[in-house]
Amino acid sequence: MLTHTPVRLTKAVLGTVVLVSAIEPLATDMYVPAFPQVGRDLAAGATQVQLTLTTFFVGMALGQLIGGPVSDARGRRIPLLLALIVMTVASIACAFSPTITLMMAARFVQGLAGGWAMVTARAVIVDLTHGPRMVRSLNLVAGVGGIAPILGPLLGAVILQLSHWRVSFWVVAALGALMIGSVAAGMPESLPPDRRHRGGLGQLGLTARQVIGHRGFVGYLIVMAFSMGVTFAYVATSAFVLQSMNGLSPIMYSVDFAANAVGLALATLLAARLAGRVATRSVITVGLAVTTAAGMLLLIGALWWDTPLVIAVVGFFLLMSAQGLVGPNAGALASAQVPEHPGTGSAVLGFLQWCMAGVVAPIAGLGGEHTAVPMAIMILVLASGSLAALRILTRPENHDVRAVARG
To answer: Do 325 and 224 contact (CB within 8 A), yes or no?
Structure first.
């Protein structure tokens, strides 16, 4: 009789998941610095160019919502390979797009396939780990992958300086091809047939309702999604605050942008080291407290002093570093609530995250180039909502990762 050989989370598998998780965030922002040139080359207005980012966000959200449950039913390896192939082809289509309409369509498919790949890769970790090791692994993925949407515009600016904006899509396509080879050669199937959930779309819908109906999962889901909202409030407004309001040069802005990315990465890696030593829920609470303090600093600075440079630099650094303590840990604890449906849980997490990214970014920028008040208010609203969800919907004695590990 054939038996299923147990699969371990090796460094190679973890590295593959990290890179898969980083590709799509890079594609999100890498060509943002080239928006004016994209508009000129494709005879499109600013709004139309911005819609290529919106269609990407929509694709990412739908890809994760659909891809997670499908991988729960069909396994991880084959759906992941297919998603990476489609993403690579869509990236090439973006590079060749002759019109803005075709660019929008290609970006939607790129986001759909990339979101599918990300949620499936993340589910591999949930399949193979639990307790503190799961938190450490997911924090590592988030620590590396979380830098990507922050550094994406910087890499895009370098590409634009040296070459053409279409090259950024060739870079994504090349990374996609690398991932296809890596998954094909070294990614085993982590979900054996006896653990899959079959039954068609009706069963997938039932599974999603079960996941969303879990009180603890919803609490941590809100915290993780709102953390993404805080991040994109920063991404959408920091250039205006630092350059338009404070006269920072593009080079100095890039240096500050990179410093904040380093703060985010170091905080995430610190959270990974604390897993199993300090209650993960307590680490999240500290991160939310720092987020609130940074939001208050930015709001006071915006109302009384028109956001001077020192307040903006300190506030942004604290804000982004705090997200390294909040988002990845909240996602790990959310996944721990629904271990029987890891793909679906990851799908719902990813879907709401990218919905928040698409909604928050334009709201935070309502003040235009001359005030940071809307951005600061948005940060405080999201932080307050996260603290309320953490207190009302989750319970430390039942939902901390150490309790899960003991179970």
So the answer is: no
